[in-house]
Input
Amino acid sequence: MEEEKKVDLERTLVLLKVDAVQRGLMGRIIQRFEDVGLKIVGMKMVWVDERLASEHYNDLGIRRGEETKKRVVSMLTQGPVVAMAIEGIEAVAEVRMMVGSTEPKAAQPGTIRGDFAHVSYGYADGHNIGIKNLIHASGTPEEAEREVMLWFNFDELYKYKSVHDAHILE
Output
């Protein structure tokens, strides 16, 4: 018999980017996370400065080039963003699946990007802008841990019981 791997609760960072806020999609997107039983343990609206945006995307310049990083930082600082720390079983993978492909044009219907956005990389590059893809979700548990601590102070993260806890906790 295979030994089962113990799975614990994870926290992940979700940012509802400027375009999600401006389009009035915050409530509809948050509802999706709550509907599947994920718990919001921290949430705030922030007008992001260039320092925080640059630190958040610190490795993007290495992976995708400095011009791409510059565009994304510029886009993230153009208006308010809603930052959320979300907790649940394998929350990082769950949230990434719900969010969909980074390029909205390629995102499957039923995902947040697939249902609410359609912009392509080609369009964004052709207009010299960051891609308006509504949302950021941490890519790995390690990235999530770093990002949650970048966006939230310890006293802004909460522990509480939700109705879903009875179904997942022993």
Summary: The domain at 13-152 is CATH 3.30.70.141 (Alpha-Beta Plaits).
